[in-house]
Design brief:
Layout (H helix, E strand, L loop, with lengths): L2 H10 L7 E2 L7 E7 L2 E8 L2 E8 L2 H14 L1
Parallel strand pairs: 1-2
Antiparallel strand pairs: 2-3, 3-4
Length: about 70
């Protein structure tokens, strides 16, 4: 899955795209970030990171986060 496909699927499922961040910042929400040799998905709230999970590819990370958001 590519970034564009991920964002399109969020929109199709009426999920606010502003809750997912692809650059490190202090905003609350879900993050998909490259960290050395892996991609990480986590939730940031009030400056603290929660439930960080590593993936070998961006596609795997995006698929995981999409499934998580669709369940919510």
């Amino acid at each position: 899955m590519t970034y564009v496909e991920f964002v399109d699927l969020l929109k199709e499922n009426k999920i606010d795209t502003s809750i997912v961040h692809f650059e490190n910042s202090v905003a609350d929400g879900y993050y998909v970030l490259k960290n050395y040799h892996r991609w990480e998905v986590f939730y940031r709230e009030r400056g603290k990171d929660y439930d960080c999970i590593g993936f070998p590819s961006e596609s795997d990370a995006l698929e995981y986060l999409l499934k998580k958001l669709l369940k919510a």
